[in-house]
Amino acid sequence: MMSSEQSEVTRDMSAPGDLNPNTAAGRSPAEWTLPPVRSFTIIENEWLTLTDGTRLAARLWIPAGADTVAAPVVLEYIPYRKRDGTRALDNHTGARLAQHGIAFARVDIRGSGESEGLLQGEYTRQEHEDALEVIAWLATRPWANGCVGMRGISWGGFTTLQVAAMAPPQLKAIMPVCFTDNQFTDDAHYLGGALCNANYYWGTMFQTVMTAPPDPQIVGERWRQMWLSRLQAAPPILSQWTSHQRYDAHWQAGSVAVDYSRIKCAVYAVGGLTDHFVNVNARLMANLTVPRKCLIGPWAHNYPDDGDPGPGLDWVHEEVRWWEHWLRGVATGIMDEPMFRVYLCEKTPIEVYPRPVPGRWVAEDVWPSPRITSQVLYLNRSGLAGAPETPCELEYKADGIVGLQRGEPDAFFFPVDLPQEQSLDDAKSLTFDSAPLESDVDVVGTPLLQVRVSADVPVAKLAVRLNEVTSEGKSWLVSSGVLNLTHRRSHEAPELLRPGEFYDVQIPLFFTAKRLRCGNRIRIALSESFWPLLWPSPQPATLRIMAGATTLTLPVRPPQFPEAEFLIPLLPEQPGAQHPPTAAGVLAVTDGSADSGAGCVREKLWALTPLTVPDIGTQLTAGWTRATLSINEQDPNSCVWKGGYMFRVERGSWDASVHGTFEVTSTAATFHVKEAIEAREASRTVFERSWSHAIKRDHM
Which of the listed CATH numbers 3.40.50.2300, 3.40.50.1820, 3.30.2310.20, 3.90.1680.10 matches domain 4-193+246-364? Predict the structure, then answer.
C-alpha cells in the first residue's frame, strides 16, 4: 500500500521512457561532474512482505532531500547476509551512491540472512519472481522516483542479468560485474564440457550460505527455529549439480544466452581479464540490441574500485554517471563514449605482482570491432608459422599431470592462485613455437584453435594454452581453453569418440587483451590433462594431432591510432592491498614421481581469522578449510578432491556455526560424491547430515 506521505513528494520521473537521456541536450562527458555530496540515512532493517506472506529483509541508504525531490534507487539482491557477511562492502557502496543522491537497497534473497523462507538452489524461478516484487516495492517507496537499477558482482551479477530478462517495467538499467550469461559453459560447474573442481568448492560454500542462521537482533527468538528449518531443508547440492553433466534445462534456466532479446533495459557489463567470467562481456556486446557498454580491467573477481591485480578505478565516478543517465534522465554523456573498453596488458599479472599490471586502456566504438583482424598461424611439425607445411600426424601420450601452473579459475588468493610461469607444464605438453616476433602484436578478443584430432578412447579432452615465451625462455600464460571432445558438436547432446577417427573441432580460448612483445615467441601447448582445474577423463588417452591442418587464429588489433580519452579516475597505487600474499592462505604443492606411483598432492590451507564487524559487535569467521587434491599419474581414477567451508557467528551468548565438507572420487563409469553439513551452537552439535551418491558419468 502506498504511504500517505508519498503524495507530498515531488517525483522526478524524467527518466526512460519519460525522457530518453540519449536525446537530452546537455553537457559533454568531460564537462559532467559528480553531484554535490549530501548526507543520507541508513535504515538497518525494513521488512518487505511478498504476496505469499514471506518477508524479505532490506537495508536501505536514503539520500537527504529525497522527501522533497525523489531519488532513483539501485538494488543489490544476493544471499550473502546483509547484516554481517557483506556489511563492509554494502556500507562502502551505499555511502558512495547515497552521498550523490542515489538510494541504495541491499536485500537478502529468500531464505538467506534474515529473510524468511528457504533457499534451496541458485538462480531459481522463485528467486526471480521475488525480485520482481522487490523492484515494484522499491519503485513505490515515498522517497523513490519510480526508476530502479540493479548492480552486483558474481551471484549479484548473475541475478541482475536474469531479472533483467524478465523485463520488469520499473527496471531501467543494470550493472552486472564478473558474471556470465551461460551457467554451463562459463560458471563454476563445467568448463568446455569438463567437470570443474570449483563445482565442489563453490557448492560447499553455498551449503553454508543456505544453512547459516539469521541474526537474533533482527528476527528475535525465532532465529533458532529458522536456522533448523534451513538445515533440514538443505538439499545435496553437489550431487544435484554433478547429475547435470550436459547443457540441459537445469542450466538453461539460469542462462540468458538462450534468448538475449528478453533483455529490454540498458546494460553496463563489467569484468576482469583474470576472472573466470571474462568471456561474457564480448558476447553481450555482440548479442544484445539494447543500449549497452562494457569495461574489462586487469583484475580478477573484483569490483573496479577493489581491482586486484591493479590498476583499480575510482568507480563511483562512472557508476553514478551511469545511474544519473538512466534513472534520472541527466545528460551525462556516458552513452556518447565507446561501447567497449579493455585494459591492454603489457605483462601478465604474475610477472609483476603485487605491482599493478603495466598497460593502457583501449576502446572500440562497437563490438565486434571492424578494426580487429584475424591472424592465422599453422601448427606445423616445425612450429607455428604463417603458412602450412605438409600435414602429418603427431602423437601425444597423455600420461602426465598437466595444469599445476594454470592457477585457480576465480583467483581469490594472490599470488598463488594466479597463473604461474608455464615451463613445467609446457615440458609435459605438445608444444608449437613461432619464430621471434618482428614487431609487437596486440591480441584483443577470443583466440581460436581449429584442430584436427583423434583419440584412442571414447572420452577425452583437449586443453590448449597460449603462452608468450621470452628471449630468456620464460613462458607466461596469455590465454587457455579446453574442450571435452565428446562435446565437439554440442553441449546439449554429446557424442562418444570413435577411437582412431579424426575430427575437426574448434576450441575457443578465454577472451584476452595482451601485447605480445617484439622478440618474444608465441607458444601453443596442447595436453589432455588440465589438473587440478578439471576432473580427469575416465581412461588414459593417446591423442593424435594433424600438424599442418591445425590452426590458431589470433584477433589482432592495429597498434597505432588515436585512442578515445579515458575519463574514469584511477585509484592511487596500493599494490597487493586487497589480497596480501601471506594473509589470505597458504598453498603447498607436493609432486611425487611417476615411478613411485605417488603422483601429485596439492593441499590448500587457509588462515581462518575471526573478524569483528565493528558497528554490530558480531565476530565472523568464514572461509575454506583444508583442501586436498590428489592423483597418481597414469591412473585417472585415483583422483580425489576433498575440502570444506566453515561459517561461524559469535556475539555474547550467540555462537552458531556451520561446517560443510565434500569428497569426490570416481571409477571409469561412476562419480562418487560425498557431502556433509554439521551445525553447532558453541561446542554442541545441533544438526548433522551426510549424503553419498553414485552418479553415472555422462560422456565425462
Answer: 3.40.50.1820
